[in-house]
Write a structure and sequence with these properties.
By secondary structure, the chain is an alpha+beta fold. It has a domain at 56-159. It has helices at 24-35, 51-55, 66-70, 77-87, 94-115, and strands spanning 17-20, 40-43, 119-121, 149-151. The strands form two sheets. The protein has a two-stranded parallel ribbon with strand order 1-2. Strands 3-4 form a two-stranded antiparallel sheet. Helix 1 links the parallel strand 1 (17-20) and strand 2.
Length: 161
C-alpha cells in the first residue's frame, strides 16, 4: 500500500472531525464528537470495523464500574493505574496512565446510559498482572467463563445518536 501526496487534490465535502479507524476507540470518539455537535467522518481500512479491541477478544479493562460494585468487586482507578504501571515496568507516562484509568469506567457508563450499549460483568477473569478488571464490546455469551464487564451486543449498536 502506498500513500500519495494530496497536493492539489480537492474533495467535494469537508468535515471538522475525521477519525481514522472504526474500532471501539474510534467509534467511541465519533460518538463523543457527534454528541458535542460535530459532523464526523470515520475512515476504516477494513471491510468490517473491528480494531485492536477485536484482537483482544473485545476486552477493555476498567476499574470502579457500577457493574463491579453491584457484584461486590472492589477495584479503583488508582489500583488499575498501579497494575498498568507494574505491567509495563513503569515505562509508560504515569499521567497518561492515570487519565486512562480514571476515565475508563465513566466512558463505559456513558456508552451504556447515553447510547444504550448493554454490559454485563464476567466473573473470574484477570488480565495477566492485574487483580480485577472490566471490559466492553464482547458478547457476554462468549465470555461465560470469565469475570469482566462485557457488552452483550457489538459496539455498532451504539451508533444511535
Amino acid at each position: 500500500m502506498s500513500v500519495r501526496p494530496a497536493a492539489g487534490v480537492s474533495f467535494p465535502a469537508t468535515v471538522p472531525v475525521v477519525i481514522v479507524g472504526a474500532g471501539a476507540a474510534g467509534l467511541t470518539a465519533a460518538l463523543a464528537a457527534r454528541e458535542a455537535g460535530a459532523d464526523v467522518l470515520i475512515v476504516e481500512r477494513d471491510a468490517l470495523p473491528a480494531g485492536s479491541t477485536a484482537l483482544s477478544s473485545g476486552l477493555i479493562p476498567a476499574a470502579g464500574t457500577r457493574w463491579q460494585a453491584a457484584k461486590g468487586v472492589a477495584d479503583s482507578p488508582a489500583q488499575f493505574a498501579a497494575d498498568i504501571m507494574r505491567k509495563n515496568r513503569h515505562r509508560a507516562d504515569p499521567a497518561v496512565v492515570a487519565a486512562v484509568a480514571a476515565n475508563a469506567a465513566p466512558t463505559l457508563e456513558w456508552l451504556a446510559d447515553r447510547h444504550g450499549v448493554p454490559f454485563d460483568l464476567v466473573e473470574g477473569f484477570l488480565y495477566s498482572g492485574t487483580r480485577a478488571c472490566a471490559c466492553t464490546a464482547r458478547r457476554a455469551a462468549a465470555a461465560a467463563s470469565c469475570s469482566i464487564i462485557c457488552s452483550t451486543q457489538p459496539l455498532r449498536a451504539a451508533s444511535r445518536s
